[in-house]
Amino acid sequence: MILAKIFKTNNEIISFNISGHAESNKFGEDLVCAAVTGIINGALNALDLKFGNNLELIVKKNEIVINVKENNNLIQELLEFLMIQLETISIQYPKNFKIEGMI
């Protein structure tokens, strides 16, 4: 199962962690994994390009972490947009993807 954890302070996202494997199909044919990976990679690229100095982005083999170092409204909007996209996948595939601390 893929697990995403959202951490908030004062109703603002301050940290996001995602890890695990969907295991909805064999390697190379896992649609849940492909969907989550596409959403996360697109978000990481945009966040790094636009707000690289405001965020700490950690990418490991089986874990991705986003820590907000210096917050602003646009960062929050983009992180909420990311969470909404991921929530769509978790609703469709609850056995393979779970979100804790959702908006």
TrEMBL record:
> By its UniProt entry, which Pfam families does this protein fall under?
Peptidase_Prp
InterPro entries named in the record: Peptidase_Prp, Peptidase_Prp_sf
Question: Which SUPFAM superfamilies does UniProt cross-reference here?
Answer: TM1457-like
**Per the UniProt entry, what is one GO biological process?**
proteolysis
Instruction: Give the UniProt keywords, A-Z.
Output: Hydrolase, Protease, Ribosome biogenesis, Thiol protease
**Which GO molecular-function terms appear in the entry?**
cysteine-type peptidase activity
| Superkingdom of the organism of origin | Bacteria
Protein family per UniProt: Belongs to the Prp family.
Query: What is the protein name given in its UniProt record?
Result: Ribosomal processing cysteine protease Prp
Organism, scientific name: Spiroplasma taiwanense CT-1
Q: What is the lineage of its organism?
A: Bacteria, Bacillati, Mycoplasmatota, Mollicutes, Entomoplasmatales
